[in-house]
Amino acid sequence: MKRRDFIQKTAATSALLTLGGLSLSSFKKNTIKHITILHTNDVHSYIDPMPADDPKNPNMGGVVNRAALIQAVRKENPNVLLLDAGDIFQGTPYFNYYGGELEFKLMSMMQYDVAAIGNHDFDNGIEGLHSQLPNAKFDFLCANYDFRNTLMDGFVRPYKIYTIDGIKIGVFGLGVELAGLVDPKNYKETKCLDPIEISKDMAQILKIEKKCDLVICLSHIGYQYKNEPEKPSDLKLAAVTKNIDLIIGGHTHTFLDKPTIVKNVENQDVLVNQVGCYGLNLGRIDFYFDSDKKYAHQGKSIVV
User: Is the pTM of this model over 0.85?
Assistant: First the structure.
């Protein structure tokens, strides 16, 4: 099946940065629309904070602390989209005992909007992932996994569009190649399509056809592979595509203090961000749109 046909069928602190020569000071205050993107990745079932005697991150992380930060941001700005870039499962006894139920229920309580699917989310098999979906009150996105002939068929969208304060935001998901990472019996007949080629189609659909003001790729393909330059990664994806504004990544557990800026094929800025692992940080990116839907942006990683 052609990738475009597949997509259409399955669709049923930091300093102020600028884009296109804009700065926040150039906007009239009464025309600014402020959208905040909050994000996590590779939390790996870390529900509790790190122990007080942890040599690297004492008392950091934990769902309660993250929820408090999210609540504080929402009080500051109600126009929030909360995303996770995958690998929700696997890493602590909570997953071994509850099989993902606790993770999904807690994320639902924190009002996550959408999540990508990571390779470790198949660790209890595709049956285990499917069985926990009723506990998730948020959507799962993956445009390059073909789940036909599996239990997950119909439960994962390639993209979703949100309208927040008049700003149209398109989000699509990507997953890493499963072969070599996951036992084939765990993902069954799931087929992994080329994430870069899929992204070109998704960006065209969301930015041009659906006329989204902001296009976000929620990715679990990895930030960068210096020793494997041909391997798909977020930095490579940003450089060889167009019409993507922001890539929220996971998989490589890359800690960034603020988003990386990459020039795309049209010499436009693309933001790429990832906040490490285990819920130790919460990513925050603020977009400020003027009346013409042009934007400035500001991003940082918040220690939990």
Answer: yes
